[in-house]
Amino acid sequence: MSTDTFPAGRPADRLRDGDQPADRAPSAAARKAGGVAGWIDDRTGSAKGVNYLLRKVFPDHWSFMLGEIAMYSLIICLISGALLTLWFVPSAGHTIYDGSYVPLRGQQMSEAYASTLNISFDVRGGLIVRQIHHWAALMFIVGLTVHMFRVFFTGAFRKPRELNWVIGTVLALLAAIEGFAGYSLPDDLLSGTGIRAMEGFVQTAPVIGSYLAYGIFGGPFPGEAIIPRLYSAHVLLLPAILVGLFTAHIVLVAVQKHTQFPGPGRTNDNVVGYRVMPVYAAKAGGFFFIVFGVIALISALFTINPIWAYGPYDPSPVTAGSQPDWYMGAYDGALRLLPGWLEFSFLGFTMSLNIALGALVLLPLVYIVVGVYPFVERWVTGDDREHHLLDRPRNNPTRTGIGMAGIVAYSVFMFAAGNDIMAIKLGMSINDITWAFRIGLFVLPPLTFWVTKRICLSLQRRDRDLALHARESGRIIRGADGSFHERHDALTDHERWILVQHEPVEPLQLTPDVDENGVARPAARKDRLRAKVSHFYFKDAVNPVTPAELAAAHHDGHQAEAIEAPFDYEGIEGDSDHTPGTGGQGADTDAGRSEAAERGIGSASRLRE
Amino acid sequence: MNALAARRRHPAAIAILLMLGLLVTGFAYAAVAPQPAKAESSSAEDVAAGKQLFQANCASCHGVNAEGRATGNGDKIAGPALAGVGAAAVDFQMGTGRMPMRAPAVQAPRGQVQFTQDQIDQVGAYIASLAPGPAVPSEEDVDASKGDPAKGGELFRVNCAMCHNFAGSGGALTRGKYAPSLMGVESKHIYEAMETGPQSMPVFNDGNIAPEDKRDVIAFLKSVEDTPQQGGHALGSLGPVTEGWFAWFFGLGILIAAAVWLGQKSA
Questions:
Q1: Taking every annotated instance into account, which residue ranges of this chain make up the domain Cytochrome b/b6 N-terminal region profile (chain A) (predicted)?
Q2: Can you state the percent helix, strand and coil of chain A, rounding each to 5?
Q3: pLDDT in the model for residue A194
Q4: What is the pLDDT averaged over residues B193-212?
Q5: Which of A80, A381, A514, A564 is surrounded by the most beta carbons within 10 Å?
Q6: Would you say residue A27 lies in a domain?
C-alpha cells in the first residue's frame, strides 16, 4: 500500500519509502453520504454497531444460504400479508356473494370467504399477492426445514450453538402453527374442514378436551369466534413472536460467528470468508431478489389454494382430497395410519388415542426430539469444547444415520397423508398403501439408519484410502530393475487436509463400578448406560489417517498396511494392485503433513476474523 | 250451503266424507309422488336387434336372458341381473366404454366405446323391455346452459365432492375402487350416472335430486371445465398435496440451484 504510489525509479525515491500518500479528496457524493452518516452517528452512536456488522466475515458455501431462503420467504410473507390485511375481513358474519365470480354468485357465505373471493377476483393484483403469500409461506417452512437438515448433518448445533438450535426448533414449530392459522382464515370448504379436524384433535385431550374445544371456539363448533381469534393470532401474536425469535436467532449467529466447513487455514478460532461489505451485502441482497423473483414467478404461473373452487365452508360437506398444507401433513398421515381400536372407554371416559396420538402427541414430540438432540449428543460424547468447524456428514456416521432415519420416519407420516391421492394416481388400493406405510414406519427408519451409516463408513474408508495412497493414475511404470508399479498422482496439501482434518473418536471406556477402595460408585449405572450409547455411536468409527500412517504409507509402501491393521476393514486388506517399490510411491507424493505447515495454508486474499 | 248443513247428520255423510278424503289424498299423492320409472317406447325390431347384440356381447357375464351369472367362486358374481336397470344404465355403461368390461377388476374403468349409439340404444330398448327402469334423459334435461352453476355447485359439494373432489377431479375409495374424474364427461352420462348409480356410486333418483337440480349439477361441472384457470396452472386440482410437492421439488430446486450458483461466484 505504502510504496505503490511512488515508483521506485530514482534512487532518491528510496528516501520516500514509508511515506504516507496523501488521502485523495472524497468525492462530493461521498462527502454528502458521509455527512448524513455522521449526522446519524452523532445522534445515535450507531457507527460502531454498523461497522461491526458490515465488517463481519461470512464463509462461503451454498448450503449456508438455505436459511436465507427461509428468512427471505418470511420477509415476503410479512410484506404480502400486510397488503392482504387491507382487504381481508376477519369475520364469520353471514353475507350473500354478489362479486364477479359467477359460479358462486347468490351463495351464502361468511364475510371472511367473500372478502377472500374479493381479493382474488375484484382487487387488482389481489390474486397474485394472495398466491405470493401462500407460496412464500410454503417456501418459508421448506427453507427452514432444509436449513435444519444442514445444521443437523454438519453438527452446527454443538456448543456454543445449542441454544440457537432450540430457538430454531421453536421457530419451526411456530411457523407451522402460523401457517395453519393462515390457511384456516379464508373459511373455504377445505380450511373449514381443517378447523373441524383441529376441533376434533383438541377434543381428544383426555378429560379436558371438550372444555378446551369450547374455550377455543367460544361455544360449540363452528361459532363465529374462531375466525377473528385465528386472525389476531395469525397477524399479530405469532408474527411478533416469530420475528422476535428470528431476530434473536440472527443476533446469536452474529455474536457466535458463523460456522465454516473444514479446510486449509480454517480453524476453530477464525472465520475464513468475505466481509459483509461489499461481498455478502451483494450476494445476500441479490439472493433476496432471486427468492422473491422465483416465488413471484411460481405465483404467477401456478395456482395455490384455489378457494373459489373449494366453495364456502358448510359443516356438512367435505371434499375428497382434504389434506392440510405439507408441514401439517405428517400429523394427518399419522391419523390415517393409527388403527381404530386405539379408541376405547376407560372409567366412563372415551379415550380417542387413535386421534390423540397422531395429533396431540406426535406434533410436540417431533419438535421436542429435534430440540433435545444436541443435549443428548453432548451427554454421549461428553464433549464440552466449542465447535466452530463443521463436521462433514460422513465423519459422524451415527449422527448422520439418526438424522436420515428421523427424516424417513417423518416422511412416512407425511406421505401417508397423501394415500388417497397416491391410490387414485397410481391405480392402487388405498388399503394396501396404508398397510405399506404402517409397515414402512417400523421398517424403513432402522433400514435407513443402517444404510446411511454403511455409506458414511465406506466414504470415510475411501477418504483414508485416498489420503494414504492418493489417486491411481492408471499409468504403469517399469523400474530400472524390471519391476512394474502403478504411478499414483499426488494429492495437494489442500485436498489431503480435507480428508484428514477431523478428530479421531473412540467409545467411552467403562470405568470400574467400584472405586479403588472397593466402594460402589453411585454414578456407575449412569456411566454404564452412557458407555453403552457411546459404544453405539463410535464402535465402528473410521478414524482419519495419522501423520505416522501417511509417512509409513509413503516410505514403506506395502508395509503401511500393517500399520493400518488395527483399524482394518474388509475392503482394504487385499490391496494387491498397489505395488510396493521404494522408488514409486514416495517419489510421487509429498511427505506427510506437518501440523504447522497446514495451519499456514490459506490464500492471502482471504480475510480472517 | 243450508241444504248441506241440514244433511250433515245424514247416515251417509260419514261414508261420503271418507270417500272424498280418500280420493283427495289419492289424487294429491298421484300428483306429487315420485314418477315411476318409465320405459321408453321403442319398436319391436329395436328390442329384437338389442337382444341379439346382448346375447352376442353381454350374455357371457350377465346371462342369456340378463338374469345375471355367478362365477361359482363363493358368492362372487360375473355380472348382475339387468331387469329394471333401464335404458339409462345401458346408455351410461356402454356409452362411456365401461361395458363390455375388458377384464375382471374391482371396478370397470372408462374405455373405448365399442358400439355405435344406435346399437347402444337397441340394447337399451331390450333391457328396458325386460322391466321398467329409468330412460335415457332428453336433450333438455341435460342442457347445461339451462342450469344454474351456483346452485349446482352447492349441490355438488353436499352430495358429490366427498368422493369426486371439489373440482370433480376424482378421489380414492376403498380397496382400489375410485370415484372417477368428471372432467370431459358428456352431460347425458353425468345425468344417467346420478340416476342409475353405477358401480360404487349411490343412486340419486328424482326424489333425492330433482331433474332440474341434476341439470344444475351438470351446469356446475361444465362451468368448472369452461372457466379459465384464474390462478395459473391448477396442478391437477388435487389440493395441498400437489402444492407441497411442487414447493419441495420445483421451488426448493430452483432456489438451491440459485444458491449454488451464487456460492460459486466467489469475489
A1: 36-262
A2: 60, 5, 30
A3: 92
A4: 88
A5: A80
A6: no
Which residue type sits at A365?
Answer: L
Q: Do B153 and A311 touch (CB under 8 A)?
A: yes
Calculate the alpha carbon distances from A149 to A407, A423, A443, A494 in Å: 9, 30, 22, 27
CATH of the domain at A213: 1.20.810.10
Which structural domain, as residue segments, surrounds residue A208? 62-258+275-330
Residue range B137-227, CATH number? 1.10.760.10
Note whether residue A477 is domain-resident: no
DSSP states along A63-82 = GGGHHHHHHHHHHHHHHHHH
Q: Do B165 and A60 count as a contact with CB atoms less than 8 A apart? A: no
Distance in angstroms (rounded) separating the CA atoms of residues A186 and A311: 10
The ipTM value here is 0.80
Tell me: is residue B10 an annotated ligand-binding position. Answer: no
Number of structural domains (chain A) is: 1
The answer to whether position A205 is within a domain reads yes
Interface residue B153 vs chain A (CB under 8 A): yes
CB contact under 8 A, B170 and A424: yes
Query: Is A190 at the interface with chain B, CB within 8 A?
Result: yes
pLDDT at A569 over 60: no
Specify the fold of B40-135: Cytochrome Bc1 Complex; Chain D, domain 2 (1.10.760)
Residue A77 lies in a domain: yes
**Other CB atoms within 10 A of residue A10 CB:** 9
d(CA B66, CA B81): 5
Q: What is the pTM of this model?
A: 0.81
Cβ contact, residue pair A320, B179, below 8 Å = yes
Instruction: Name the residue in chain B with its Cα closest to that of A142.
Output: B248
pLDDT above 80: residue A7: no
In the predicted model, what is the mean pLDDT of residues A584-600?
A: 35
Q: Which chain B residues are Cβ-neighbours of A186 within 8 angstroms?
A: none
Per-residue CA distances from A85 to A119, A579, B251 (Å): 10, 74, 25
- Closest CB to B231: pick one of A295, A303, A320: A303
| Range name among A386-400, A553-567, B163-177 with the lowest pLDDT average | A553-567
- Counting one residue from chain A and one from chain B, the pairs whose CB atoms sit within 8 A come to 207
